[in-house]
Amino acid sequence: MTELVYVLNGSNLNMLGKREPHLYGTTTLAQVQQRVEALAARLELQCDFRQTNSEATMVDWLQEAFERDAAVIINPAGFSFASVPVLDAVKLIQQPLIELHITNIHKRDETYRHSLISRAAMGVICGLGVDGYLVALRAMGMALGKE
């Protein structure tokens, strides 16, 4: 059976590769998506990869993932630090949920250090650059018995 994993990306990640390359690198989100989908296929995971700048859309997608009994890897980006609606939607998820950040949020200034989403995540991966997506997917595969 192929397990469904939503890979959800929050605000400004559509600008990956252009925005603050000294922090986030030069790899685009489209390139990340290609890598994630290729690994997901090898792990026999069905991957639904999405990005939004809208908090409401993120909440809708998390509710959809709940309704579909999907696992979730989420890079909540700016929604991490102030979005109670996203946190409440994350709490709905019954399957494993992994929070992901490209940078090490604990080394950043105070604004970026305390993610609300971490309170509901099975695990948090941060500081590994875009490779963190692949680490998160492998961890998800193990959590779902696929690796």
Element layout with pairings:
Elements: E1 3-9, H1 21-24, H2 29-42, E2 45-51, H3 55-67, E3 71-75, H4 84-90, E4 97-101, E5 123-126, H5 131-143
Parallel strand pairs: 1-2, 1-3, 3-4, 4-5
Question: What report would you give on this structure?
Answer:
By secondary structure, the chain is an alpha/beta fold. The chain is built from five helices and five strands. The chain has a five-stranded parallel beta sheet, sandwiched between helices. α4 links the parallel β3 and β4 (97-101). The longest helix has 14 residues, at 29-42.
Tags for this model:
5-stranded parallel beta sheet, alpha/beta, 5 helices, globular, 147 residues
Give a brief rundown of this model.
By secondary structure, this protein is an alpha/beta fold.
Report the span from N to C terminus.
Answer: 14 Å
Which sequence of SSEs, written as H and E, runs from N to C? EHHEHEHEEH
Question: Rounded to an integer, what's the Rg over CA atoms?
Answer: 14 Å
Strand order of the largest sheet: 2-1-3-4-5
Q: Specify the overall morphology.
A: globular
User: Which structural category do the helix and sheet elements fall into?
Assistant: alpha/beta
Number of helices: 5
Largest sheet: 5 strands, parallel
Unreliable stretches (pLDDT < 50, length at least 5) are none
Helix content: 25-40%
Number of DSSP-assigned strands: 5
In round numbers, the mean pLDDT is: 92
- The fraction of residues in strands falls at 15-25%
